[in-house]
């Protein structure tokens, strides 16, 4: 429990964190990886290079400081990050390393402004914040390993099937090498894949949404191959697409994630996706069809064209059901797309289209895709009066903000 003086000092640093937060977290990662390069086996190198991890951590530190006298207020964020940590294999003994280098970074960036009193207060505050994460994650580790078919750490799975879904997306059907049962999951969750790539100094861990309904004897992930191999994401996705074959073995962590379909509700649901963001949406759609056949569901997917549109036959087959409506948006359709009526709307998912074609009252919206796409969808829904509790979304990667954008139209991939 923090004393009032410590709380007051931490709260007094909130404006400073708002201004210098990203500089502090950038310096933090530089210092930590310099002193503990082994942690590069865990962290996503691409997110580091794109500064997404730095921005995400800065936001989390700012939120923690702002709510230091009521950490329960940020419990949803703690749980969201906790899912990521459990999936990656973050352990309690790594938190002191993080705390040490966070304090060093604060001192390094702020200089004399970060006096001993402020550093001492932040040391105490970090201890409280770390304990919140450790306690939440301990429960997650226990649940992942103790549930039926569950396990701890990374388990070996065999690539049972590898199916090309489009020019850029391939599905991998994964079955446990030991032939034993696998844990179920909630629609919208993801698994982590741990790779040791020849010639690479560090391992690479990537998280991929499960793209099929729960209850199968396999996990399916559908992965987009990023252009080029000069960045870590391109290197990893190209490796999976081009090097991993049926029969190969991959290291997989148990399903995780809090972006999940609420099957306790019977309200109509609208699922909106852009590009490979359709993967958790497909899992949600199939789950509604399987376990809530009376629940109305609208599936909206945006892609460039039919060449990059994955899993379209699966969605089309479900669209014939009485409780399912689906719409396909292509912003750059090919002549073949036009001749074969492969899409419903040419262009983007706009505010006006949503207002005219989708019921907005007492409806739950779930969406996923590129960040500009999600920003535009989020803005459109809020402009149309959709309440915050009806809006649910997932970032592929570190958390970001959807509140501000100069984008006039959703961007698809």
Automatic annotation (TrEMBL):
Question: What's the Enzyme Commission number for this chain?
Answer: 1.14.12.17
Query: Which residues are listed for heme b binding in this entry?
Result: 85
- Keyword annotations of the record: Detoxification, Dioxygenase, FAD, Flavoprotein, Heme, Iron, Metal-binding, NAD, NADP, Oxidoreductase, Oxygen transport, Transport
> Where FAD is bound, by residue?
190, 206-209, 395-398
Q: How is the cofactor bound?
A: Binds 1 FAD per subunit. Binds 1 heme b (iron(II)-protoporphyrin IX) group per subunit.
Residue ranges of the region described as Reductase: 149-413
**What range(s) does the Globin domain occupy?**
1-138
- Cofactor annotation: FAD; heme b
* Similarity section: Belongs to the globin family. Two-domain flavohemoproteins subfamily.
Instruction: Enumerate the PANTHER family for this protein.
Output: FLAVOHEMOPROTEIN (PTHR43396)
| Summary of the function given for this chain in its UniProt record | Is involved in NO detoxification in an aerobic process, termed nitric oxide dioxygenase (NOD) reaction that utilizes O(2) and NAD(P)H to convert NO to nitrate, which protects the bacterium from various noxious nitrogen compounds. Therefore, plays a central role in the inducible response to nitrosative stress.
Q: What is this protein called?
A: Flavohemoprotein
Q: Which organism is it from?
A: Neobacillus massiliamazoniensis
């Amino acid at each position: 429990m923090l004393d009032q003086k410590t709380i007051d000092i931490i709260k007094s640093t909130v404006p400073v964190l708002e201004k210098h937060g990203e500089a502090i977290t950038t310096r933090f990662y530089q210092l930590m990886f310099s002193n503990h390069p082994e942690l590069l086996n865990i962290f996503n190198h691409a997110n580091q290079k794109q500064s997404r991890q730095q921005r995400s951590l800065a936001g989390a530190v700012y939120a923690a400081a702002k709510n230091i006298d009521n950490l329960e207020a940020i419990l949803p964020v703690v749980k969201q990050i906790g899912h990521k940590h459990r999936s990656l294999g973050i352990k309690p003994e790594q938190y002191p390393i993080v705390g040490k280098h966070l304090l060093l970074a604060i001192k390094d960036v702020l200089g004399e402004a970060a006096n001993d009193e402020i550093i001492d207060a932040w040391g105490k505050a970090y201890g409280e914040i770390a304990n919140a994460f450790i306690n939440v994650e301990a429960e997650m580790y226990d649940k992942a390993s103790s549930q039926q078919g569950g396990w701890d750490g990374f388990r070996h799975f065999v690539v049972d099937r590898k199916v090309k879904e489009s020019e850029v997306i391939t599905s991998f059907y994964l079955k446990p090498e030991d032939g034993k049962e696998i844990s179920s999951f909630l629609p919208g969750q993801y698994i982590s894949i741990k790779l040791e790539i020849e010639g690479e100094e560090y391992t690479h861990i990537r998280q991929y949404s499960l793209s099929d309904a729960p209850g199968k004897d396999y996990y399916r992930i559908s992965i987009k191959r990023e252009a080029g191999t000069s960045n870590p994401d391109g290197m990893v996705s190209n490796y999976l697409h081009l090097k991993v074959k049926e029969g190969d073995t991959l290291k997989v962590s148990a399903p995780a994630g809090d972006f999940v379909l609420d099957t306790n509700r019977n309200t109509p649901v609208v699922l909106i996706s852009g590009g490979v963001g359709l993967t958790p949406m497909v899992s949600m759609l199939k789950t509604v069809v399987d376990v809530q056949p009376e629940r109305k569901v609208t599936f909206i997917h945006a892609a460039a064209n039919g060449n990059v549109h994955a899993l379209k036959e699966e969605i089309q087959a479900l669209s014939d059901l009485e409780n399912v409506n689906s719409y396909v948006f292509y912003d750059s359709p090919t002549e073949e797309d036009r001749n074969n009526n492969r899409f419903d709307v040419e262009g983007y998912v706009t505010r006006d289209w949503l207002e005219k074609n989708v019921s907005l009252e007492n409806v739950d919206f779930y969406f996923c895709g590129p960040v500009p796409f999600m920003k535009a969808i989020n803005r459109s829904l809020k402009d149309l009066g959709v309440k915050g509790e009806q809006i649910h979304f997932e970032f592929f990667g570190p958390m970001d903000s959807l509140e501000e954008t100069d984008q006039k139209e959703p961007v698809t991939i």
